[in-house]
Amino acid sequence: MSDTEYTSGGPQPQSDELPVGTAGPLVDPPPPAPTNAVEGSSTWSLLDRLGLAFCWFLGLLFCAIAAAIVIYLLIKGVQYLKPSMLVTPAASGFSEGESGGFSDAFIGTLILGVMSLSLALPTGVAIAVWLVEYGRPKALARVTEMTVEAIAGIPSVVFALFGTVIFSSTALGFLSRSNEGVVFGRSFFAAASMLSLEALPLIVASTREGLNAIPRHVREASYGVGKTKAATTRRILLPTCRPQIATGAMLGLGRIIGDTAIIVILLGATQNFSPVEGAPWPLDYLRGAGTTLTNFVYEASPTGNLNQPDKAYAAAVVLLLIVLLLNAGTDIIHRRARKAGTWSQ
Amino acid sequence: MTRQNLNAPPPIRRLDPQDPTPAQTAPEHGATFVAAKRSIAAPQFSIRRMEVDKVSIHYGAKEAVKSVSLPIRQGEVLGLIGPSGCGKTTLLRSLNRLTELTAAAKLTGSIRLDDVDIRLIEPTLLRRRVTMVFQQPNPFPMSIFDNIAYVLREQGSRRMKKKVLAPQVHSALQRAGLFEEVKDNLDHPALKLSGGQQQRLCIARALAAEPEVLLLDEPCSALDPQSTAVIEDLIVKLRDDVAIVIVTHNLQQAYRIADHVAFMYLGDLVEYNSATRLFNEPAQDRTREYVSGAFG
């Protein structure tokens, strides 16, 4: 059957391209020759193209800045970093050779990270679960939400000041050094509890995000085979949003180990641990003052009291490596979750 | 071809009024409405398991279901059809008290399971006796084995070793016709199965609780025709072991696999009849219009 059988009787246009609006053959025009062209920006308006270029530029700029910081710190820091610094406590001395390392600051950072997170993580996850899965009465949920948001906005120095008031009270004297009824109010306990407030909103926010991303029918599938809300939360919901919880914990931990105001005001920011005599281990250390890497970097920098910039770089690179390690850990959790798959919407 | 040609708008093509292949004229109302073939034989037996008695469900001021009475029998498949928003899914969800999760929903009338009012049965127990499969395949994000084991284990417990549970897990997968396909990969993540397999896993999960009634809420609407056929065969096979209620938008599907069909419209039960009667000689005008596609 030839093509002409399907055409109308009118005059046939001769060219390949039909004039718009005329009756033409009902056969498809010959397909365009295949090209490798994908939908490109060449047809966009100038403004759109400039916008796209700007986005590219900013993205690359951001990568460049991050890379510059990491590379610069690695080069500088690795040059000065000696493994012995991680095991030698700081000492008083005139030259960099005499002043020891920063083991107390390093261990102090780890202690504070663990203590604060073990306070903030369960609390934050519990608040998020209550908000998303229960959240009744509505007014109370709204107040909780606003409180968490408010905490997120409070500067850490305000927390620190508030902490001194609380932890200097005689009732809480067992959490820090106290002498004849006078409570010192500066200890790992005090700093960790206030730092956990810094991390809390981040954990709540990302856990809520994770819970909200789980479709309602998945919860109902679990209720639908006779599971209680508690069992569903424990076995389905929380394991499913493990990546988001990890992200929240990571961000929170970043805040915790990056803070200085609370360290100075609530941890005492001494160069070494100052355990409380007579208390059983490890409470003697936790009740005493101490320091962290961020504070050490500040003190060792040219503006600080110690003025030993080489060690400041070395400590900074350790701090950086801790953060990169945490990031890698979160990434592994995310990748594992992706392997398990997700629901189609 | 040059770039200019590619970017130019395609020419408008008009159809010739004297096209030699005219469209088929639609059949008149009253002709056989459904062209599907029934894949279900007459029931061998039928035992009344559930009884819906003058059930009305309100969401605030809105009445989603209006005084509906229906029997649900083992040995038969009951199809619920009707346009969107007619209350069929609400009715289905009320059968295992899932509607109670929506605080605003209020139910009057009574639903009885083996002559016991379901409001007297503890909800978690009831939901193990009347299980549900949803529109979207929703396996839990764990292994195929654990998806079934989750149902068999007590509430939040992780106790009971794999070895102990294995026979029950295998038999649930076998009943859902999935075992042969996944027996070597029981540790694989369930969400990596194909859509049809995921839905059969959900059916296996619902069967693992050894229910008396199985509720299916448009179980094939997210699936391709082949997976749909597999699941339809499965439903037909299961009807002797468990009473089945299926909500569907697909009239052909209802005709193929349901023994009795209930047509709902705006919360009312318009007509309840055997599938062949309801589709071929509907008693109500509304039913006639709906099954012939006059509205939907």
Shape of chain A: globular
Q: Based on the structure given, which CATH architecture of the domain at 105-292 in chain A is correct?
A: Orthogonal Bundle
> What oligomeric state do the depicted chains represent?
heterodimer
The CATH H-level homologous superfamily of chain B: P-loop containing nucleotide triphosphate hydrolases
Average predicted local confidence, pLDDT of chain B: 86
Q: In total, how many beta strands of chain A?
A: 2
**Helix/strand/pairing class of chain B, anyone?**
alpha/beta
- Report the C-alpha radius of gyration of chain B, rounded: 22 Å
Note the beta-strand portion of chain B. Answer: 15-25%
What's the structural blueprint in terms of helices and strands?
The complex is a heterodimer of chains A (345) and B (296).
Chain A: H1 46-80, H2 103-134, H3 138-153, H4 156-167, E1 178-179, E2 182-183, H5 188-212, H6 216-223, H7 229-240, H8 242-258, H9 261-267, H10 283-287, H11 293-300, H12 309-340
Antiparallel strand pairs in A: 1-2
Chain B: H1 3-7, E1 47-59, E2 62-74, E3 77-81, H2 88-94, E4 105-113, E5 116-117, H3 123-129, E6 130-133, H4 144-152, H5 162-175, H6 179-182, H7 195-208, E7 213-217, H8 225-238, E8 243-247, H9 251-257, E9 260-265, E10 268-274, H10 275-280, H11 285-291
Parallel strand pairs in B: 3-8, 3-9, 6-7, 7-8
Antiparallel strand pairs in B: 1-2, 1-4, 4-5, 9-10
Helix pairs in contact in B: 4-5, 4-7, 5-7, 7-8
Question: Can you walk me through this structure?
Answer:
The complex is a heterodimer of chains A (345) and B (296). With 345 residues, chain A is mostly helical. Chain A has twelve helices and two strands. Chain A has a domain at 105-292: MetI-like (MetI-like fold). Helix content of chain A is 61%, strand content 1%. Chain A has a two-stranded antiparallel ribbon. In chain A, helix 2 packs across helix 8. The two termini of chain A are 47 Å apart. The model of chain A has no long low-confidence stretch (mean pLDDT 86). With 296 residues, chain B is α/β, with parallel strands linked by helices. Chain B contains eleven helices and ten strands. Chain B has helices spanning 3-7, 88-94, 123-129, 144-152, 162-175, 179-182, 195-208, 225-238, 251-257, 275-280, 285-291; strands at 47-59, 62-74, 77-81, 105-113, 116-117, 130-133, 213-217, 243-247, 260-265, 268-274. Chain B is globular, with a radius of gyration of 22 Å. The mean pLDDT of chain B is 86. Chains A and B meet through helix 6, helix 7 and helix 12 of A and helix 1, helix 3 and helix 7 of B.
